[in-house]
Amino acid sequence: MNWNFSTGVFQCRLPVAGDDNNALLSLLGKQNQLNHIPRLALENMDQVEDELRRMVMRFENREAAFWLIEGQYDQQVFARISIQKINWMMLSAQLQWELTPECTLDTLQAVLPDLLSFIFTELGLHRLELRLVKGSLYEGWPEQLGFSAEGVLPQQQEFEGKDVDLAVYSRLATD
Fold this sequence. Notes:
The protein is α+β, with helices and mostly antiparallel strands.
């Protein structure tokens, strides 16, 4: 199975250790690009290398897959979209994204259908869940991308001394 594929003018590919360090640092090194998850930004290349090792290890253990999304022609990485917490018994996973400011809703609308098709058809998953910090910049996007709002998990997580509510969205293979 080939996990790398093109979608229009975009390329979805697995990260390559060594080659993608700088792109990953620019993507995961800015706190405002991660607040919707929430997670802390990476600060140096050692953290990037550790992140790449964890991504490879989790992929090899079949518990996650991470795609870097880049322009087909300029090869500039503008997003990382992943499925994590894959449950092969329930055929479900959590979708997560980290986006540069250049990645718009229109861009995701161009990329996500092919990526979801791969996840549902090639991998055989049935359900994807997406969790975003309630009130985050991307809160309205999942519904425009075909996800259904399921509700809010109040005080689901603690981040930087504050309780965080997470909005939950889902998409089924039959949607």
